[in-house]
Every structure is written in structure tokens, then in C-alpha cells.
Design a protein that fits this description.
With 186 residues, the protein is mostly helical. 51% of the residues lie in helices and 0% in strands. It comes from Hymenobacter lapidiphilus.
């Protein structure tokens, strides 16, 4: 076995794995794996992904071809490991928690919840203060002036930019029947 790709293929065959199984366990695309097994030099991320997904695979054997295929010193035969079915791809073992980690995470969640509640209270305070300063009744967060406050001329000026308030005033006049629209809606 001259290349890393040929050793990957040998490991796969010994474990009775398909390229799809290796993809599911490592995230290495099938096309990339096929290219590496055909002789393309793999990037270091591919080797790292294989060693992370299959911790019993010997790095020395994978990189140089020397020594046994597995870390514990045994050679892998096709019957040494049961085949991985597509329904249950090889996955790393679940992480073990250290003492105090659960308490730390729970305290952190409580702190975040308290911060969120304080932020919601501040938001309510600032909304009430803003409404008080603007003289608006509670619940009306529109900052545009009412049409009667803006429209003081007989006809609104027409220019390249229309102020939102002017447009509201013009619309109110059309609805009230004081101005006839230029075009009837179809």
C-alpha cells in the first residue's frame, strides 16, 4: 500500500464500510474520498477527520503504512468489526461532563434569563417615557403627525420627494371628498 488513499480504501474494506458510511461518519464528501483513494494527495483535514471518526485507526499506519492498522496493535480483518449500516453510522462517544459543569451552565442560563427580563423592563420604561415626552396616548407608537396637524395649505406642494405626512394628509382630503383624484382606480 503505497498511498494514504490506498490505506484508507484498505481500512474501509476491512471494516466493510462504503464511501457513504465514511461520509456520514466524517463529513468527507464521496467525490473527495474517491479522489483520495485513487491517488490524490489528501489535505490534512481529511486525515484529521478520519482519525477523529475512527479513533482506533493508527495514525502511523495511515500516514506511513508502517505498523499495525489499529492503535491497539492488532491487524484488522473483515470480521474484526461489524459492518456499519447506513441506519447507524459510526459516531463519536457522547461527551462526559465534568463536576460543576451542569451547575455552571444552569447558573449561566439563569443569568441570561434575568438579563432578558431586565431588558424587557427597560424597554417598557423607555416606551412609556417616549410616549410621555411626545404626548402620545399609550399604545400609539406612530411618530408621524396627524394629517390635520400637517396639512395647512389648500393644496399640498408637489415635488420630487413627498413627505409621508403630506401624503397622508392628501389621502385624507381625497377620502373626505375635498379633492378629486386625478385617476379613478380601475
Amino acid at each position: 500500500m503505497d498511498t494514504i488513499g490506498s490505506r484508507i480504501a484498505a481500512f474501509r474494506e476491512a471494516r466493510q464500510l462504503k464511501q457513504v458510511d465514511v461520509f456520514r461518519a466524517t463529513g468527507i464528501k464521496q467525490q473527495t474520498l474517491s479522489s483520495v483513494e485513487s491517488g490524490t494527495e489528501p489535505k490534512s483535514g481529511i486525515v484529521a477527520a478520519l482519525l477523529a471518526a475512527y479513533p482506533d485507526l493508527s495514525p502511523d499506519w495511515l500516514l506511513t503504512g508502517s505498523g499495525p492498522m489499529l492503535r491497539d496493535g492488532r491487524a484488522l480483518s473483515p470480521t474484526a468489526a461489524p459492518p456499519t449500516s447506513p441506519a447507524s453510522p459510526a459516531r463519536p462517544a457522547p461527551l462526559q461532563t465534568q463536576p460543576g459543569q451542569v451547575d455552571f451552565v444552569n447558573k449561566y442560563i439563569t443569568r441570561l434569563e434575568n438579563d432578558l427580563a431586565a431588558a424587557a423592563e427597560r424597554e417598557l420604561y423607555y416606551q412609556a417615557r417616549l410616549q410621555e415626552l411626545l404626548g402620545k396616548p399609550s399604545g400609539n407608537l406612530s411618530y408621524a403627525a396627524e394629517p390635520t396637524e400637517v396639512h395647512t395649505m389648500a393644496a399640498a406642494p408637489i415635488g420630487p420627494r413627498f413627505d409621508r405626512c403630506v401624503l397622508r394628509a392628501m389621502y385624507a382630503d381625497v377620502v373626505a371628498g375635498q379633492v378629486t383624484p386625478l385617476r379613478q382606480a380601475v
